[in-house]
Automatic annotation (TrEMBL):
Gene3D superfamilies: Protein of unknown function DUF952. This is DUF952 domain-containing protein. InterPro entries: DUF952. Residues 21-46 are annotated as: Disordered.
């Protein structure tokens, strides 16, 4: 799978605390902050563009209880499920937090409109990240990708699972 492409107009605004003057009105909230939109968007329910969220999970964890929504440990520990807004960010997070994790590492592509839990876009390290304040509904998963790693365990690319 190639890079997930996003709206080039959004990228500069996701990495700042306030939208600069002249930012497109569609990308700025009433408070003058960048609208919490990821770099990747695809047509979702009803043919409208909806943000797609990305979540890292080990295959064994994802497969453990397929009849229930997925609730990662961070939900109990921190009160939300960590997600990322785009492919470069998810690969960086895979490299940082899962480099030494054994087994197959997956990326769940989530349609934000299908999630039953609230999604809050919150700043961390100068970037807005989507945090799902509840479990991940399996019917919100639109694709499951695999993180391809190099010999040193570094995350290199996302590939479709066949």
């Amino acid at each position: 799978m190639g890079q997930i492409r996003g709206d080039a107009r959004v990228e500069p605004y996701l990495r700042v605390g306030r939208a600069p003057r002249g930012a497109p009105a569609s990308l700025v909230s009433r408070r003058g902050r960048p609208r919490p939109r990821p770099l990747s968007e695809t047509a979702g329910a009803g043919g409208r563009n909806v943000p797609m969220l990305l979540h890292l999970v080990l295959l064994d964890d994802w497969s453990a209880d397929p009849d229930r929504p997925y609730a990662p440990p961070s939900l109990a520990d921190e009160g939300f499920t960590h997600c990322s807004p785009d492919e470069p960010t998810i690969l960086a997070n895979a490299d940082t937090y899962f480099r030494d994790a054994p087994g197959t590492l997956l990326v769940l592509v989530l349609d934000e409109a299908r999630l039953r839990s609230e999604v809050r876009w919150e700043e961390s390290r100068g970037v807005l990240f989507p945090h799902v304040h509840g479990p991940l509904d399996r019917d919100a998963v639109t694709a499951v990708l695999e993180v391809r790693r190099d010999a040193d365990g570094r995350a290199r690319e996302l590939v479709s699972r066949s």
